[in-house]
């Protein structure tokens, strides 16, 4: 796996969208602040028909595979956490839905202390306890975020890395605000595979592989950039209309990654709509995805990554 844009000087210049007085200033977003968030992020390779209770449990069967094949978050994400949001040694942090700890390890490396990770899947919670070696610096809370018992008004920073779509927004965002101290920061971001503005050849090639049981990718490619803008506007509107945050900002990081055919198979195996398939159907599906990467693309596939990141300061 070779990332072409994880360093700050190689990340495509992000588009900024700041929200002032509840209105989206740029990027063609809707001016309404009354629309609810979508129940799941359009554009993620997550089957939108998965119920939250299923989605929260679908990734725990192979945490090592998830860590091995998911693309790491770009360095720019952690620059934002450091420079804008004050992440440094001694910063008190909570993380929503860490999975097997892809972002958690970077948060610890940048000084999070303590780091309270809230994971609803018991298998992933056990994996985190075994691999993060919880001490006074790391605390694993095995519960849905909505039910987790955390000290209110004590955290400097809260984050959710490719996870907040599994949280009930009407419950989750007010809870985030209660946990943060005044002046604390809330940050959520997603790694997304493929770019609706560019519609890469590989994603076009694999669309026919998707059956009616795994159609989120087909819907997303057809919907394209307008769906992305609607989602952005709704997430920003939710933050603004809560009345609990200021300095609300959005950046979209664009960067390429190059994968071998085997890495493509491994990556696809971690996507919710694929992991949720019966074993034989999943194996056939992954065989076809790997075969396209190997036979039609010479064993090497470039994927245009996007990482939308939202930051907001607790008032």
Characterization of the model:
This protein is of the alpha/beta class. It has one domain (2-194, 228-254, 305-314): Rossmann fold (3-Layer(aba) Sandwich). Helix content is 34%, strand content 25%. It contains 12 helices and 11 strands. The protein has helices spanning 52-55, 63-69, 75-83, 104-109, 122-131, 169-179, 201-206, 216-223, 225-241, 261-269, 272-275, 279-295; strands at 2-3, 12-20, 23-24, 91-96, 112-118, 138-141, 155-161, 180-189, 192-193, 245-260, 300-314. Strands 1, 2, 3, 4, 5, 6, 7, 8, 9, 10 and 11 form an 11-stranded mixed beta sheet that branches. Strand 5 (112-118), helix 5 and strand 6 (138-141) form a beta-alpha-beta unit. Helix 10 packs antiparallel against helix 12 (279-295). The longest helix has 17 residues, at 225-241. It is globular. The termini are far apart.
Largest sheet, strands/sense/barrel: 11 strands, mixed
The figure for the number of domains is 1
Rg (C-alpha, Å):
19 Å
- Report the uncertain regions: 6-50
Distance between the termini: 41 Å
CATH topology: Rossmann fold
CATH architecture: 3-Layer(aba) Sandwich
The number of helices is 12
Overall form: globular
What is the overall pLDDT average?
82
Identify the CATH homologous superfamily: Vaccinia Virus protein VP39
What is the helix/strand order? EEEHHHEHEHEEHEEHHHEHHHE
Number of strands: 11
Give me the secondary-structure category: alpha/beta
Beta-sheet strand percentage? Answer: 25-35%
- The percentage helix is 25-40%
């Amino acid at each position: 796996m070779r990332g072409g844009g994880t360093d700050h000087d190689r990340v495509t210049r992000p588009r900024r969208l700041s929200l002032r007085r509840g209105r989206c200033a740029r990027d063609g977003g809707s001016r309404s602040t009354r629309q609810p968030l979508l129940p799941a992020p359009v554009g993620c390779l997550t089957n939108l028909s998965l119920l939250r209770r299923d989605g929260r449990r679908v990734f725990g069967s192979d945490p090592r595979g998830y860590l091995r094949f998911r693309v790491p978050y770009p360095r720019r994400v952690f620059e934002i956490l450091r420079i804008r949001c004050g992440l440094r040694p001694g910063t008190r942090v909570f993380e929503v839905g860490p999975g097997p700890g892809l972002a958690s390890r970077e948060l610890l490396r940048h000084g999070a202390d303590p780091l309270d990770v809230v994971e609803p899947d018991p298998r992933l919670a056990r994996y985190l306890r075994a691999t993060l070696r919880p001490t006074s610096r790391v605390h694993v809370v095995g519960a849905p975020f909505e039910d987790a018992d955390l000290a209110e008004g004590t955290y400097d920073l809260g984050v959710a890395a490719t996870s907040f779509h599994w949280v009930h927004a009407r419950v989750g965002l007010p809870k985030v605000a209660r946990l943060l101290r005044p002046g604390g920061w809330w940050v959520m971001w997603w790694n997304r595979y493929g770019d609706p503005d560019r519609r890469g050849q590989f994603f076009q090639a694999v669309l026919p592989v998707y059956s009616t049981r795994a159609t989120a990718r087909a819907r997303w490619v057809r919907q394209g950039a307008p769906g992305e803008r609607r989602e952005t506007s709704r997430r920003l509107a939710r933050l603004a209309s809560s009345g609990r945050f200021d300095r609300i900002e959005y950046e979209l990081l664009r960067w390429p990654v190059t994968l071998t055919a085997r890495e493509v198979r491994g990556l696809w195996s971690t996507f919710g709509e694929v992991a949720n398939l019966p074993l034989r159907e999943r194996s056939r599906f992954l065989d076809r995805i790997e075969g396209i990467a190997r036979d039609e693309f010479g064993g090497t596939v470039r994927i245009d990554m996007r990482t939308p990141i939202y930051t907001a300061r607790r008032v």
